[in-house]
Design brief:
By secondary structure, the chain is an alpha+beta fold. It is built from 14 helices and 17 strands.
Amino acid sequence: MTIPKKPDVTIIGAGLAGAECAWQLLAGGFSVHLIDCKPEVFGAYRLPGYAELVCSNSLKSDDPETAGGLLKREMRSLGSIVLDVADRQRLRAGGALAVDRERFSAAVTNRLTEHALVTVESRKVDAIPVDTAFTVVATGPLTEPDLAAQIDSDHLHFFDATAPIVSAESINPDLSFAAGRYGKGGDDYINCPLNEAEYRTFYDALLNGRVVETTAYDDRVFAHCQPIERLAARGIDTIRYGPMRPTGLTDPKTGRRPYAVLQLRREDAAAQMWGLVGFQTRLTFPEQQRIFRLIPALAEAEFFRYGVMHRNTYVQGPRVLGGGNVLKQNSRIFAAGQLTGVEGYMESASSGLITGRFIRHLLEGKSRTMADRLLPAGDTMIGALHQYVISSESPDYQPMNANFGLFAPTPDTPARKAARKAFYGARSAASIQRMLEAEHA
Ligand SMILES: Cc1cc2nc3c(=O)[nH]c(=O)nc-3n(C[C@H](O)[C@H](O)[C@H](O)COP(=O)(O)OP(=O)(O)OC[C@H]3O[C@@H](n4cnc5c(N)ncnc54)[C@H](O)[C@@H]3O)c2cc1C
């Protein structure tokens, strides 16, 4: 097939989102021009190829009864390149989907660059091209501020820390209490008290916990934002006078001020997700689970999201993006991936998949309204995450990963957790099926 002089779509950034977006377009027979700095690297990137997993080699759980696993199942049924390559290359990793980073990146790169409808260009883009039919900006969390400002000039955010989020039902109500400091704020916070012995055990574990390796680059970027374990290293009482201070709080069970307290703050309107206040961290995910579960009320904590520390440039999705991640200000420019305010490898890939399918529908001659209608619905994980990006009402829009808290409660949602997960799975499968049938109607 001959490549038209002007490609149907130009994609800037061939990371997880850019690669996925390209694949969806190629599947529809449309031509793609990929522009990426690679093989040159900057920041945290190390590999010469596309779709680099910058840190962990795990794409997390593959169990469809987890939020991440459900997202994967949906993406497989929508023809994801990331999952197709990962499935062929999977390493033994229990219930997780893990790959060899270099082989994974090389395989995705080969598939794309060898495709007859793909042209590639190696350069760092500093201005979004204006002479293309459709352009997708998928330059990831390390996008230079000047480039990101072309999508969101006023409200560009630099987000460099996330604290973990746990599920409401996994917080032990007998070992915690709802209260605001000095009686202010009603039950806005759940407080998890520790006595002196519990605090010392927790503190020792925190000091000795395994952290994700950092680069000099990261250290420069985060010089002013200290993870909880680094704060703790300053002295045994530093965090007890900081994020874990008990001042203004009385434990109703003892009638006394606790020795130390972890506060949890609600993350969603339905109060299903609770964030660990001030606990931004660089601990590895297994260490977060082990160490934070030493806090008595969190002994059984279920983590909706783990804390991560890295530079993260993202735009205010709900303000600047519409369905399919199109710019509200320019219907020919789209964003995709972490830049839109999703968090994580698969989430970023899923965002590229949505954008690719949306543009494919437009190129097929469907109206924008029809392309909107063909987006995955909010009862799928991929659709719920996309709706969060384009319509979250939170005044403090923050990057989000796949989690069941994104599903709005419905009257038919089972109360029992096990039944609920099966319900979500069946509902998602039916919804994706309906969407695929509507595409071909
Ligand atoms: C240090 C670090 C560690 C992380 N660890 C994890 C983890 O363990 N697990 C997890 O799920 N997520 C992790 N993340 C988040 C992860 O980056 C994203 O989830 C995911 O890779 C983002 O996908 P993306 O496609 O949006 O961007 P990326 O995968 O980052 O791809 C962006 C691409 O754009 C290219 N590019 C950037 N700027 C330009 C430009 N101006 N011109 C041309 N090309 C450009 C880059 O070379 C790259 O190929 C981490 C992020 C960072 C920064």
